[in-house]
């Protein structure tokens, strides 16, 4: 039973951890994308291009893609929309996670390596440029909202006390998070059409609702159910309300509460 409990909690911790990393570190990356074969330059009476499309250069390190569009309104103000997604794939930095959990059991390590996750997020943002040049250039302060959705699957838990190959629990999980935050950064123009956007400090606070469901291929005994329920109830998730249901067919865990994070990113953009 001990192995079963450890893997269940590992899955929940991994889901929570990567919700923070993906919705914060992944957050927004921005890079140049081809606009059209015959781009039309949109400028105001200053002659400055007012549109910037970007690709986050850091996102691929977290196995996701993040694209941002910025529309300059005037010298001091712009609005942005960022869309990021990660297809269903194995977790990034799996070996680091294994070291963090302290596992030395090959079965548990294989369980983490087999986990798959997918995410997407949408983030509108308002930027206020404080420098003299403005129009999308220089230091800025931004207010942002972010909606993030995460799905976790392929967390297969093998019963330690039942050696049969089909004695396992298959877990899936979903998480939805609504974030609000501020962002500090700076954007530079490079040449006639390119930009570098670096946001380096972006604290976030959000409200999350998540659920993890496990289906047992072999019914759990009453003793196993009691042990699993006691163990889950003893786990502390700060600032989170927890709902646990365990029966012979498996377990469900529901979480809702506050979540905190930090945004950072580096993007290459194309002005037009």
What do you see in this structure?
The chain has 272 residues and is of the alpha+beta class. It has four helices and nine strands; from the N terminus they run αβββααββββαββ. It has one domain (2-271). Helices cover 20% and strands 51% of the residues. A hairpin with an 8-residue loop joins β4 and β5 (138-158).
Label the structural class. Answer: alpha+beta
What count of helical segments does DSSP give? Answer: 4
- How are helices and strands ordered from N to C? HEEEHHEEEEHEE
Give the mean pLDDT: 82
What's the helical proportion of residues?
Answer: 10-25%
Question: Rough shape?
Answer: elongated
Alpha carbon gyration radius = 22 Å
Structural domain count: 1
Q: What is the fold's blueprint, element by element?
A:
Elements: H1 2-25, E1 51-56, E2 65-72, E3 77-90, H2 94-101, H3 106-114, E4 116-129, E5 138-158, E6 168-190, E7 194-216, H4 222-234, E8 240-247, E9 250-271
Antiparallel strand pairs: 1-2, 1-9, 2-3, 3-4, 4-5, 5-6, 6-7, 7-9, 8-9
